[in-house]
Amino acid sequence: MPVLRVPYTDPLPLPRIIPPSAKSTDGAIAALLEFLAPSLPRPSVPQSSISSKLATCAKGAEHHGKTLLLTGAGISVASGLADYRGANGTYTLNKTYRPIYFNEFCENHEARKRYWARSFLGWTTLDRARPNKAHRACGELGRLGVVGHVITQNVDSFHPAAHSHLPTTELHGYLRSLVCLTCRNEYPRRSFQEHLARLNPTWAAFLEEMLASGALDTENPDERRKKGLKANPDGDVHVPDAPYTTFRYPACPVCLATPPPKPGGGVLKMHADADGAWDTSSEGGVLKPAVIMFGESIPAATKVAAEEAVDDARRILVVGSSLATYSAWRLVKRAKERQMPIGILNMGGARGEESFFADVQEGNTGREALRISENAEQVLPEIVRLLRERKRS
Ligand SMILES: [Zn+2]
User: Fold this and answer.
1) CATH number of the domain within which 62 lies
2) Is 149 in the active site?
3) pTM, whole model, 2 decimals?
4) Residues forming beta bridges with residue 316, ordered by sequence position
5) Catalytic residue among 172, 195, 238, 271
6) Which of 57, 68, 264, 380 is the most buried (most CB within 10 A)?
7) Is it the case that residue 49 has pLDDT exceeding 60?
8) CA of residue 129 to ligand 1 center, whole Å
9) Coil, strand or helix: which one is 193?
10) Does any domain span residue 28?
11) Could you tell me the distance, in angstroms and rounded to a whole number, from the CA of residue 107 to the centre of ligand 1?
12) Quick check: 393 pLDDT over 50?
């Protein structure tokens, strides 16, 4: 069954901290160490001839002991990107914020103009942002043999950038590329941005002006307004003399050069203006960011890769996610059904978390269940430091 990406914006209750000793930061770090301890590789012992024959099996067993990380927007906040739901998140600050839905993007040229105009202004913030200490700590946990895989809901590509040695499944795709809805070719977002600038010179000049004013350094609409970024009541930026209805975006160059075949015979009509902007008379060649939009199904291969990562792990640790999207929540539910210990490190509540912790045993130190409300950027590097110390001794 396909899994749709849908937003979930109801308020969430504050978490019950587990174990209760984890209410302080020191207590939370101690409990998280307890949670991860069973994933620490055992010191190697001299192998007998029988055990060396079983080396292949042992490799598998080692892999099965690892912790799976499932990360969300909270881990990228320290990189300067907004958490949708957090204290300064998009949903809380900008009440008019409404994400575009997949069908709308595919079917509606006006919706695409609006999307690309917003994206044109927003891209620079993402392009300049870098992975932070928490992403790097995830990579170090991989090097220590504690973590074997990362699943992220984030589309900023910070995980693959920070730890290419540790596999990452990007559950909701990635903004670094565009994909053609017709031929499925992918293109880098950065050169697309340059093309958007050439197609929309008034917007490009406005972007330069706003970057210089610092208006794009914040997601807070009030602060933006003070710095000269005017928005209409729908949250669309008002660019003098250039309404977004005149915004132009490029067509897929491959579809333009070689129009793809039509299902019923012949080829798709493809038209662009002299600058390469997509023309409404075209029957294909629409470029979409390579993210899974709301209302879009996660590709089967991604869904399977994420499920396999859950099945291959011994325990799961959620970092910086309120599990607001069903696609992420169901992975934790799957882990629970497989009786894996579940840990959540997230500031504020997580969707349906009571059901994950209903059966916590008295005397749990964090090893069998963990729920802490701390800053990942502080806690994870400290965990890496302590685990390294433990490994040395
Ligand atoms: Zn194409």
Assistant:
1) 3.40.50.1220
2) no
3) 0.88
4) 68, 342
5) 172
6) 380
7) no
8) 29
9) helix
10) yes
11) 16
12) yes
Determine whether the annotation assigns residue 57 to a binding site: no
DSSP assignment of 94-144 = -TT--PPBHHHHHH-HHHHHHHHHHHHHHHHHHHH----HHHHHHHHHHHT
pLDDT of residue 13: 83
Ligand 1 mean position, distance from CA 286 (Å)? 7
Q: Tens digits of per-residue pLDDT, 363-382?
A: 999 999 999 999 999 999 99
Res. 83: pLDDT tops 80: no
180 annotated as ligand-binding? yes
138 marked as part of a ligand binding site: no
Domain presence at residue 7: yes
- List the domain range (segments joined by +) for residue 71: 1-41+50-81+131-172+298-393
Phi, psi for residue 163 in degrees, rounded to 5: -145, 80
Q: Which of 153, 179, 160 is nearest to 286 (CA)?
A: 179
Residue 241 belongs to a domain: no
Task: Output the six-digit token pair for 271.
Answer: 């038209």
In order of 75, 322, 353, 373, the CA distances from 13 in angstroms are 20, 11, 10, 13
- pLDDT classification of 57: cutoffs 50, 70, 90: very low
Dist. CA 220 → ligand 1 center (Å):
36
9, part of any domain? yes
The total of structural domains in the chain comes to: 1
CB of 293 closer than 8 Å to CB of 102: yes
Distance 186 CA to ligand 1 centre (A): 9
